[in-house]
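protien #1 (seq + structre)
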Amino acid sequence: MHKEGEGEMPSIAIVTDTDASLPAEIAARHGIQLVPIMIHFGEESLKSDEEIDDATLFARVDREGKLPTTSAPAPGQFAEAYEAAFGAGAEQIVCLCVSGEVSATYGAAVVARDLFPDRDISVVDTRTLAMAQGFVVLAAAEAAEAGAPVEEIIAHATNVGERTQLYAALSTLKYLAMSGRVGHLAAGMATILNVKPILTVQDGKLDLLERVRTRKKAWARVIELTGEALGDRPAERMAIVHVAVPDEAREFEAQLRASLSCPDEILIAGLSPGLSVHSGAGMVGVVAVAQ
C-alpha cells in the first residue's frame, strides 16, 4: 500500500466505454463508470447497453432489414463521467478506451480531458476491445482499489492487455454483408457453404483469421487457438462473449472446460451493441488472460 504522509491515498476513479463488454453489475461492484457507445437507427440515437442491448438490436435489425450505424460517445459524455467521478470524491481519473483503430472514442475522451486543465485525468488507448478491454479495465480498478498510484495502475493494466487474447466465431456473414464490409456475392457464397469466420484482435483491430465450415469445427478451432495462445501458462481469467445467444454461450463454456484448464469462474458477457452491429447475432468467442 502506498501512503501519502499520514493521509490516505487520493481516490482514483476508473472510466471506460461500453465497447469493453463489461457486465453492468461488475462495473458497479468496482465503481467503474461506463460511457455508452451510440447506436443510430436513422434519426433515433440510443445509448449502448442503457437503452438497447444485443437482443433488442437484432430483433429490430431482422424486423427492419437494415443495420444501424454506431458512433463514439461525444466528448460531453466523457466530461459528464469525469464530472460525476470528481463529484463523488475522486481526485484522479484513469480512462481506458476501446482501441483507437476501431473507434473515435479515445479521441473524444482526450478532448473531454482537456476541458479539465486543472484536474489529473489520464486517458489510455487499450488497443483492444470487448472483454479483452474489459479485463484491462478490471485490472486497473483492482490496482486502484489496492492503493496503487496512477503510473502503476496504467502499467498493470497494460501488462494484462499484453497477456490477453480474443478469438471468436461468427455465426453468419449476413450482417457483415448488410454493413457492406464483405461483398454480397462473397456473403451469399459463404451462406451456401455455411462458412464460420474466426476473428481475433491484431494491431488494435478485429481481423479475420480464417474461415471454418461448420459451427462445431469453428468452436473447436476457437478453443484450439486459445490453447495455443496460452501455451503452458494457465489462464488467470477467462470470459465468453456472445451476441444474443446465452444458451449457446453456456454450451460453449462446457466444451471450453472439457478441453482446457480453466479458472473456476468464467465470466459470460454480451458483446454489447457498439461491437455486435459488426459481428452479427450468434457470435461466440473467448477471451483469455494468460498468467
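ok now protien #2
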Amino acid sequence: MAHKKAGGSSRNGRDSNSKRLGVKRYGGQLISAGSIIVRQRGTQVHPGNNVGIGRDHTLFAKTNGMVTFSIQGAAKRKTVSITPA
C-alpha cells in the first residue's frame, strides 16, 4: 500500500489576479479632470497636452475636455491629449 497520497496537483494552483489594464476612455469622449484614460505597463501610450502620468505609467486627465489620440514624431509615438471643452 502507498503511504503518501498522490501529490500531482500540489504544484498547480498559482495564478495572478488580472490587473484590468487598457484604455478606459476613448477618442472623442468627454472626460473630467483626474479621470484615468489608460492603465498600462510601460509607456505604450505617451502623455500629451493636459495629460499626466502616474508612477505606474497610468495616464490621467489634468483638465476637463475631450480625449484625442494621435501619432506623433518620427518615432511614431502614440500620444493622448485633452482638448479643453
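Strands lie at 22-23, 30-31, 36-39, 45-47, 51-53, 59-61, 65-72, 77-84.
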